Amino acid sequence: MTPSIDLANIEQAAHSIDSCIRQTPQYVDPSLSRHFGTDILIKIESVNVLRSFKGRGADFFMKSVESNQPVVTASAGNFGQAIAWAGAARGIDVRVFAAENANPRKIDRMRALGARISLEGHDFDAAKDAAREFAERHSGARFVEDGRDPAISEGAGTIGYELAGENLDTLLVPVGNGALVSGVGAWFKAHSPKTRVIGVVAGSAPSMALSWEQGAQVCAPVSTIADGIAIRVPVPAALDWMKETVDLVVKVSESSILRALMLIRDLAGLLLEPAAAVGIAALIENPELRSGRVGTIFTGSNFSTEIAAVLRDSPSVNCN
Questions:
Q1: Domain boundary at 85, 106, 140, which?
Q2: For this UniProt entry, which residues form the secretion signal (predicted)?
Q3: Distances in whole angstroms, Cα of residue 202 to Cα of each of 52, 176, 227, 254
Q4: What is the pLDDT of residues 56-98, one digit of tens each?
Q5: Strand partners, 173
Q6: What's the total number of domains in the chain?
């Protein structure tokens, strides 16, 4: 039976997680609003110590870990950084498994934050299998799977706690393993039920959208620049939560993700990683979403050297 996300825990996390990762900026951006013809509120999770939202769930989860208990996880980069950071603060040994082709910048950052790194497998889900097997072989190690442990979604749900008073008609949330949209959606369903919570995935990594649509786990190949949401094998617990917390899941193209990155750069003055821009990509592709007060979460800015070059060298986009 899938454990439930506890709203009381989200509220507790909103007051107990490290102050350097909560109460991030949120405001209606005038340039994006003018471009899309409606109020666009942005929540900027890329300006904290980890440059992503993942520290919220990691910090809340690590409160439950014994100081002498090693933690093993898998990550495309941001979650691993967050677990490494939260572990270092508590003197907890952390080992992160990542794919052999993972973003080198994210790998270097995880090491700098104190994690032991193992590169195994051709993608994130293969690395996760290796992490699980490693934890099973090492007695006492605790395997943590982003998207399965409620505490991680509850920590991420503090974004919903901070946003729910903004009177949003629609909230567009990037969907990787589902922890973020599940936690945020749970809070909104209880405290802002009029808000449509819409998950956004890369069309070239559609497993979470297909699974949500069909009501069962559907695995699908991944081929996307948005490595932070490149999920091939959905986590069943997150799918169960999403049935109750998400109103719709939409897929966006690679070209729209790139255009969204450029629009955010040119109109909001922010440099993001591709996964963080998919909410704006959804607005590009779906004019029907551009009504009322629309919010989206800019989930991180740990971009690769290739994306850094694109952000640096691409000319200004036509914003008309």
A1: 140
A2: none
A3: 18, 9, 10, 7
A4: 999 999 999 988 899 999 998 999 999 999 999 999 999 999 9
A5: 199
A6: 2
Same domain, 278 and 218: yes
User: Is residue 93 located within the same domain as residue 121?
Assistant: yes
Q: Which of 190, 192, 154 is nearest to 293 (CA)?
A: 192
| 157 plus 258 within the same structural domain | yes
CATH code for the domain of 95: 3.40.50.1100
Distances (CA, A) of 6 to 82, 146, 154, 184: 22, 17, 7, 12
In this structure, what token pair is assigned to residue 142? 């605790």
Q: What is the pLDDT of residues 136-160, one digit of tens each?
A: 998 889 999 999 999 999 999 999 9
Domain that holds residue 103: 70-140
Instruction: Say yes or no: 305 and 191 in one domain.
Output: yes
Domain closes at, from 83, 116, 140: 140
Q: 188 and 101: one domain?
A: no
Q: In what order do the strands lie in the sheet with 26-28?
A: 26-28, 39-44, 293-298, 170-174, 196-202, 248-252
Same domain, 48 and 90: no
136 and 268 together in one domain: no
SS (H, E, C) 5-20: CCHHHHHHHHHHCCHH
Say which residues have a Cβ less than 8 Å from residue 210's Cβ, sequence separation at least 6: 218, 220
